[in-house]
Amino acid sequence: MRAPLITVIVSYTIAIVGLTLMPGADHQGNPWHMSLFEAFYVISYTATTIGFGEVPFPYSDAQRLWMTFSIYFTVIPWFYAIGKIISLFQDPALKQALTTNSFARAVDHLHEPFFIVSGYGETGSLLVKALDHKGIRVVVTEMNQDRVNDLELEDYQFDIPVLCADAKMPDTLLRAGVRHPMCKGIAALTDNDHVNLAVAVAAKLLNPDLMVLARAEDDEVAANMASFGTDHILNPYTLFGDQLGMEVHAIGTYLLHKWLTGVPGDTLTLPKVPPIGKWIICGYGRFGKAVVENLEREQITTVVIEADPELTHCENCIVGSGTEAATLTEAGIEDAVGIIAGTNNDINNLSIVMTAQKMNPNLFVVVRKNRRFNEPLFEHFNADISMDPSDIIAHECLARMITPMMTHFLKLVRTQDNSWANQLISRLVGVVGENVPDAWGVTVDAEHSPAVANLIAWGLPVTLDALTRDPGNRTQKLDLVPLMLVRSGEYTLLPEVTEKLHVGDRLLFCGSAMAKSIQPITLSNHKTLTWIINGREIADGWLWRWMTRKITRLRKSRKPASQ
């Protein structure tokens, strides 16, 4: 804008000075010249095309001639300046700068916990939708402007700050709030492992205490992420392989895992149990390798069909894509119990299972979905198990973001037998029904549960049972189940309700949304907690609390003497 502004200033100066030099006459006919202020006033309403008239006296011919010149001389620079302003606001660099500043201000003004999601693709969009549904704030960075436009058109309950920028750049992460005191974590969910690696490394360097979740399908990239302290490295193929192995060997453990990582409120559907026998795996890429490893771990025979054995390093396989009947026959489709179409092409996967089912209608079918826009095709086919990498990663991220303790709980669940998992499922169904429960953590300290911490400090024992009671009716149990107790680094699964709580304990609960919303009353109000424990109401005052502490100490000091 430097040249347009100089042009306007110069044209105004010439017009104003020239007008003061033009001779005129007042009402008595005396010679008169405009002052600089009067000339500036006249040129101002003339150059802006407002128009007002000849003031304060009628103009002479010389003045009118100069005004005619000034009209053309000053209006043209205005048009030039306005055109420059319009073109400036259409400049991509300026628009990006304005958008970036607006995004940074929106993040700075967040006063509640939020997560950063890098990548608004299929996985990122699912995670953002789930977090928004849970009432958790989200900040998004995405390189693709079309995806940014898609987010802005979505009907979310919160305004989600989004920036079209490269998340690998430290400035982008800083603007997204990686050092913001309310930022609870970042999820790197782009479709490029190296971008996710760069985001994870940069986030850990900028804020070492921040929880970082990253998607990685390559083992070398995953190892690099681990070396920088990435908290959760998620490989959809490994996760699915583990889940498939659980379905074959321990359906109860799988069902419990699926239930506790699902979206709260969704109805739990019973999965189909994969049969034990010979399985045919089409595609020996990263997905195929993970599936074969887990199936063979369960002592299941596998036959691999691979179109490019040299590329995938498949030493013992049948060469082919699996879409041909001859290849399936060579693999022994007639006596197989299941087939897994795991290539990176959705159309090929559908073709594989259609051909295989014609040859063996009793096959158990597992099909891999690579793109969500092909969902209608897979729904029409109705496979026994559909593997959606985006859905798997989104659910795993959701579980780790909302309840970080759930990760440790699920790891410990894998060490239990299937009957233990079935008993827990029966207990959960009896408490919360067949809908996916909410899960939450509780820390026993003055900040998160002041009532519990205060009573323990006053010498009054508080058991886990008190936290499971309804604060409105102490004889009623809340619809929740204590899943785990963490004390001094030791993990206890399904702790007894008679367990006495200590300051510093961490508890993992799951239950109904109502129970989750009611329990904080007990945790924060010592009057309510005392009433739940012994059925007595206490006065709420510092004098009464002082007297209670004195009486408690006196009783403790006299107890040995009486004994």
UniProtKB/TrEMBL annotation:
UniProt KW Lipid biosynthesis keyword: no
Membrane topology classification: Multi-pass membrane protein
Domain of life: Bacteria
Annotated InterPro entries: K_chnl_dom (IPR013099), NAD(P)-bd_dom_sf (IPR036291), RCK_N (IPR003148), Trk_Ktr_HKT_K-transport (IPR050721)
One BP annotation, GO: monoatomic ion transmembrane transport
Keyword Transmembrane helix part of the UniProt annotation: yes
Domain RCK N-terminal residue range list: 112-234, 276-387
Name under which the protein is recorded: Potassium channel family protein
